[in-house]
Amino acid sequence: MITSILIANRGEIASRIIRTCKKMGIRTVAIYSEADEQAQHTKLADEAYYVGKSNVQESYLNQNRILTIATEAKVDAIHPGYGLLSEQASFATNCRDHGFIFIGPDAKAISLMGDKLQARKTMIAAGVPVIPGTDAVENIEDTLKEANKIGYPVMLKAASGGGGIGITICRNDQDCEKAFEKNKKQASMFFGDGSLYVEKYIVNPRHIELQLLADEAGNILVFGERECSIQRRHQKIIEEAPSPFLTETVREAMTEMAILAGKAIQYKNAGTIECLVDEDGMFYFLEMNTRLQVEHPVTEEIFNIDLVEWQIRIASGETLPWKQEDIHFSGHAIEARIYAEDPIRFFPSPGTIQELSLPTAEHIRHECPIEAGSVVSHFYDPMIAKLIVVGRDREEAIRRLGEAIHSYSLTGIKTNIPTIKAIVGHQVFQAGEATTAFMEQHHDELTKRIQEVLS
Question: Of the listed 27, 251, 291, 400, which one is catalytic?
């Protein structure tokens, strides 16, 4: 069994991983940047090492420095968390070349699924349903030709993209012409690869993902689905499990598909198959995230499992002790992401938190690395905390989320708490009818409600 782990990350996910390590009796080593010297994860870990200046290129993305610290601290393994280096195949390779266990899949799987075009080809070859689309398009002429062949609306997407960056919905030739150069530049800037491709745009879809755990013996299990349709510009705001939309028949079919996808790439450790589901219940592979997801707590809550613990156990060589027929969920869980941002204009809102008062109850879980006096830096992602609630059913979970978010008090910076209040009180969300177009379709109404909360 692994006895010591360096967490190559920061914020709530670093604290989250440290808590599970402590439960398992594993020594923890944190890294911190200049801006994070007083961050919670540095205080929770058994040891903490300065990794570099505040910008991520000189700290949390500095592979050589992180590996040097891991050597000095004499750890067995490195956990990448999510974001940052978690889906960089070179980091997985470098960890293993330096003698550390990388707590995640092998570099080959990360690389294959990180290239969206290769991922599509692999899944099509495996018989997994994939949204109609193209190979890389080299110029605007090819883009227009392929878009018209598929039929508008289409998505013009970065081949190496993620997080909603480098994606544009095009409803006609003019939209494609406007987006082509802009997306290409964005893709080059953020991912070092300006390749684009065209994909059919599914109208009013649900964004539903499936949680995989896979061990070295080739066992692959699916721990249900998460519905992540409440998004703004492809950034998730509220996630829940199970999905209020899926029938048992579709759920079983998606489970079989996810296992097929995992076996096609001989996947190991935790991963997520992201899908779009159309209004008729037809589902399509969207991408695979070869890491732990931000929204993993809702799965943990309804399946009573610690996914970080099983990431570590699988990396230690343990086999999964269950069969798929043993996997059952109970209740309903919802997660709301707390962002440091202006709820009207959506600009990041860095600064110092003056007061923080969190609701408490047996059915409430916080992933919250901040406290009064914490400084929210402009250097990092604006997500500062997560609020998770559990109920016996969806109706109870929504009611409890509404009560919890109205008791959540945070001052000193602007947050999206008014946005969450507006969403939770909206009849479309409460009815389980929200699609990925929810925020856009109800923009005016939601803005009015947010302004009422702020007044």
Answer: 291
